[in-house]
TrEMBL record, chain A:
This is Transketolase C-terminal/Pyruvate-ferredoxin oxidoreductase domain II. Keywords: Oxidoreductase, Pyruvate. The keyword Oxidoreductase applies. InterPro entries: THDP-binding, Transketo_C/PFOR_II, Transketolase-like_Pyr-bd, Transketolase_C. Pfam families: Transket_pyr, Transketolase_C.
Automatic annotation (TrEMBL), chain B:
It is an enzyme of class 1 (oxidoreductase). This is Pyruvate dehydrogenase (Acetyl-transferring). Its EC number is 1.2.4.-, 1.2.4.1. It comes from the Bacteria. PANTHER family: PYRUVATE DEHYDROGENASE E1 COMPONENT SUBUNIT ALPHA, PYRUVATE DEHYDROGENASE E1 COMPONENT, ALPHA SUBUNIT BACTERIAL AND ORGANELLAR. Residues 19-316 form the Dehydrogenase E1 component domain. The keyword Calcium does not apply. Its cofactor is thiamine diphosphate. The keyword Oxidoreductase applies. Keywords: Oxidoreductase, Pyruvate, Thiamine pyrophosphate. GO terms for biological process: pyruvate decarboxylation to acetyl-CoA. One of its GO terms (molecular function) is pyruvate dehydrogenase (acetyl-transferring) activity.
Amino acid sequence: MARTLSYMKAINEALAQEMDRDPSVVVFGEDVAGGAGTSQPMDAWGGVFGLTKGLWEKFPDRVLDTPISESAIMGAAAGAAVSGLRPVAELMFIDFLGVCFDQIFNQAAKFRYMFGGKTRTPMVVRTCYGAGAGAAAQHSQTLYNIFTNIPGLKVVVPSSPYDAKGLLTAAIRDDDPVIFCEHKALYGVRGEVPTELYEVPLGQANVVREGTDVTVVALGQMVPRAQRAAEALQGEGVGVEVVDPRTTSPLDEATILASVTRTGRCVVVDEGYPRCGMGTDLVSLVATRGPRLRAPIGLVTPPHTPVPFAHVLEEAYLPGPDEIAAAVRTTLEPVDA
Amino acid sequence: MMSQTTGIGPDELLGAYRTMRTIREFEERLHREFSTGAIPGFVHLYAGEEAVAAGVCGLLTADDYIASTHRGHGHAIAKGCDVMAMMAEIYGKATGLCKGRGGSMHIADVDVGMLGANGIVGGGPPLVCGAGLKAKITGTDQVAVSFTGDGGSNQGTFLESLNLASVWDLPVIFVVENNGYAEATSSRYHQKGIDVAKRGDAFGIPAMTVDGQDYFEVREAAQAAIGRARAGGGPSLLECKTVRYYGHFEGDQQTYRPADEVPTARAEHDPLTLFEQRVTASGLLDAGQLREIDREVGELIDRSVEQAKAAPEPALETLTEDVYVSY
């Protein structure tokens, strides 16, 4: 049975149901319960956004607050994972990877390969990313590309409540470290979510809208924006197919390339920085592995600047439906012979 | 006050000596082999610090966990990693403990609770917080031990982990092997000569400093810390003052070190010699038993090098195994 849930509630529900199903799942991070050490009730906060609210009530032994010590949190997740738990550790904002990256990319990511295949490291790092909330340069970045660059990590970027629940369930059950990137501007977005547990497999793209003229590949918050662009272009008689890879590692290359093969045109939309990002990576995939195209590939990203604070600047920073539509129109212009 | 030798049975003493002698022979042999150019990469030798690994790991079972350092061969041997497979790993062979993918700096065997040597200074302490959390949540009496050098004790990961283990009341022991050098930089400079154990107070963790060359002192302190952890008493910090007999890595000319430092330590305060003096003077063991172990260990190390040299290289198709690969 499905009903409407927010993206945030969908993630909370996946955690609660998976913890109920599997006693080895533990949740820890800064303020994930909140209230520890005071006269106030535990679970006072439930995380900085209230996402984990209610979990401590159900699983008081498996929901643990931590000091603000991201290296220790990430390393504890890695150590717990190799010794038999399935930790879901919270990195409050993806920007904080700067103070803990070693434990993720030198430790957790490499254990299985470096130790000759004997180890499993079934940990999930839940983190939020992205601009649009006025959180400025150190709390708004889109950095999933950095994790995607590292062999041994899997990276998930859900764009809807349905995907968020199903992908988190799959991530928790996966035996490799998974970085689960939640867009903070999507937390309030509602959508149909089944009541029961289900998995959306990692590495399976979603064609969220079919069209015959141009393929738009978009991730996270850029997916609804690409859909709005596609609706506008529909009125101009242009059929846009929107493909959401959903995970950047593994990347469903086949679905992306099949779509581009059908349409012959491609625009990539990415909220990350323009250099060495998922945007350039997807463009490279289509350019080197795709069919002969009818137009150069379009790439829409923010400018190469930190994320600004002022609302008007932040909106100007983020790729919007108008810019996406303009990039699509460019691919439809006649090409000089 | 001198540490006690009573209450330790002859089998345990023989086992401890075998561990220390195996580490010493393994490392001395690697030192010679490395100089011939036969071993690839970076090798950091543990010789001189044997009493720490033997004194701590001798009290652990295969179900307990350790996280190690750059200088990890001694911990791996003391925790029960297969010596033949370790040598093959250091030679980068298919029969290596990690199939030739890890090498000296990443020797690991989770089957015996060895969560890896570590190429990152200070990489291990956060990991044992996780292993300790597993023991606590699942209600076992397992403990987790991290080994860190004086160099690693200045990393944020070490201090974060002391605090987290204290806050979560974890069955964890942080062992600091203070050999006086963070790579080439003396601890008299990099921590102003202050005992690392004094940091325990700041985190509400029982701590003590022992002579890391004295197996009996290390064992006695480790026994208290491990016992406390198993009984739910939380983490401890154990600083062992020790001596590194070789450079930071093989090939290090040690120009930063007084020339008589290591020869003096070897002559006057060697962990194997101290051990032998204690057990023979007290009549717990006789020298003949120790010479027999020396002979057996010598043969084992000879055999491990012969087999490592003769072992096949890893098959090229293993390059992309045991990791998710795209492209």
